Amino acid sequence: MESGAGKHWTEEEVKALLSVWSEKSIRKQLHGTLRNKGIFIYIAKRLQELGVCRDWKQCRAKYKNLKYEYRTVKYAHNSGDATKTMKFFHDLDAILRYEPVAQLAAEENGRCSATEARLNASPTTDSTQ
């Protein structure tokens, strides 16, 4: 039962997951994909190469949990509650910062254009400099 579903992830295992998740090709595949079993099979294989023995279901569950916790903390920060925090917040922020979460909310209200989404996604890139 060493690699059972109830086994807690160690800090090293989470760091390995984040390193694979942070790869541009992985982020691109995960973004907007609902049927992502194949991606998590690949992530589990990559983790095995790094010495982390987790199956694709465990990887997907950890991915979802980390993402949920990150969004909860991010929402709290945006609401003025800077006391809420989580381990790996800055790592997750670097990975998820450019996910168009704000864009989706704005599109639901019918106010967001593609140009506006690009401006929101990359505030530091200015082609006029």
Automatic annotation (TrEMBL):
Residue span(s) of domain Myb/SANT-like DNA-binding: 7-95
InterPro entries linked to this entry: Myb_DNA-bind_4
Entries under PANTHER family matching the protein: HEAT SHOCK 70 KDA PROTEIN 14 (PTHR47595), MYB_SANT-LIKE DNA-BINDING DOMAIN-CONTAINING PROTEIN (PTHR47595:SF1)
Protein name: ZSC20 protein
Native species: Anseranas semipalmata
